Amino acid sequence: MLRRRMGYSDPSSGKDILGNRSLCFIFICAFGLVTLLQQILYGKNYIKSAQQFSRLKGDETGNWTGPVNFSDDGSLKPARNGRKRCFRQNFQPDSQLSVIVTPCLADIKKKKKRYLENYDGSFEYNSTACRELRQEIMDVKVLTMVKTSELFERWRNLQVCRWEQNKEETSNFKMSLSRCCNAPSFLFTTKRNTPAGTKLRYEVDTSGILPITTEVFKMFPDDMPYSKSQYKKCAVIGNGGIIKNSKCGKEIDSADFVFRCNIPPINDKYSADVGTKTDLVTINPSIITERFQKLEKWRRPFYEVLQNYENSSVVLPAFYNTRNTDVSFRVKYMLDDFDSQRGVFFFHPQYLLNVQRFWAVQGVRAKRLSSGLMLVTAALEMCEEVHLYGFWAFPMNPSGIFITHHYYDNVKPRPGFHAMPHEIFNFIHMHTRGIINVHTGQCT
């Protein structure tokens, strides 16, 4: 009986009537049929598009988007060899269609990872490619997020885009500076913002107080010599080796107002790169101490150095600490002795404190901000448009070529005193946002 049960088989067990295997087979057939129909329809549309393109004339071009070549007679032909161009429809107010020619985005993406020197700013600021390139830099929130070489590459790629000021971003940034620092009122110590009898507190030696006597008060200007957005285009010149061989001298001299840092050389040896025009130059008291013996002996050598800057004004941080005060005052006395009409100003210590706090929020935390950053901050309130030259904080330029620290020497700054890489990182972000224009290549 047991053997009979084991040997019994159901005659319908292998038929799978409308079972899983049958349903699977039906599904595969249906999928294959749909795919075949799609391919047939795609082929018809492809042939139709090709025929339509071959008949394109005049305004009919506006109905098509794709790569084309331009022949010598100005006619449009399908792109085969040579550089591709993409064009799109543009609807004019008179309902006429026109064609706008732009570089193919696919080609741009292929080239984003290398330096596109041949383009020289040929892409518009608000083009799709440039928005993507700017976003690549803005994605780097802090300097330590990427390797320096990666940051350089992103910066190089951005150079294919023509810089354009972003009015909204610039206005918002200037409003923040105005609320915080207010350079048109407090950049320099004046008779208006620091009356006689004031007990002026130093920037660093906060426990030290300088009584503003009548003699000191006489050295101050009546009021600030500059006003808000007084100048249209300003150039702030750093002393970095990045400006060497840039041939930017003429472009710099064409600016309405030029700032320079720490009486750098601008003679014939360097003028082709850095220009000669100077409206305001800073003087670090340490330069007077080290190079001119605190002006305690001969003063003419220092006077002759200042003659290189024609009628520019000078500004010193006299109230940074107590050591700076006497040396800075001697500059004023010396110029008066030579009957010079050159303006001599002293940074207001409260302004410098406010600037330090402002940039600390932006990630620049250092014992002392650089003179260049102080001037850039002031320029943003004094000028409608600010251009930077000679600002770089790395031993290599964006192309990876080693450069000197300054354009005139290779003397390194005191370690840990400034936070130059973080300052430049902020400048790169501000350039990307359309607030300032940072020049790191050659000028045309």
From TrEMBL:
Transmembrane segments: 21-42
Keyword Transmembrane (UniProt): yes
Pfam families per record: Glyco_transf_29
The protein's annotated pathway: Protein modification; protein glycosylation
MF GO annotations: alpha-N-acetylneuraminate alpha-2,8-sialyltransferase activity
Keywords on record: Disulfide bond, Glycoprotein, Glycosyltransferase, Golgi apparatus, Lipid metabolism, Membrane, Signal-anchor, Transferase, Transmembrane, Transmembrane helix
Cysteines paired by S-S bonds: C234-C383
InterPro entries in the record: Glyco_trans_29 (IPR001675), Glycosyltr_29_Sialyltrsf (IPR050943), GT29-like_sf (IPR038578), Sialyl_trans (IPR012163)
Reaction catalyzed: a ganglioside GQ1c (d18:1(4E)) + CMP-N-acetyl-beta-neuraminate = a ganglioside GP1c (d18:1(4E)) + CMP + H(+)
Keyword Transmembrane helix: yes
GO process terms (BP): lipid metabolic process; N-glycan processing; oligosaccharide metabolic process
Membrane association type: Single-pass type II membrane protein
Stretch forming the signal peptide: none
GO cellular component: Golgi membrane
Main location: Golgi
PANTHER family: ALPHA-2,8-SIALYLTRANSFERASE (PTHR11987), ALPHA-2,8-SIALYLTRANSFERASE 8E (PTHR11987:SF4)
General function of this protein: Involved in the synthesis of gangliosides GD1c, GT1a, GQ1b, GP1c and GT3 from GD1a, GT1b, GM1b and GD3 respectively.
Family per similarity comment: Belongs to the glycosyltransferase 29 family.
Name of the protein this chain belongs to: Alpha-2,8-sialyltransferase 8E
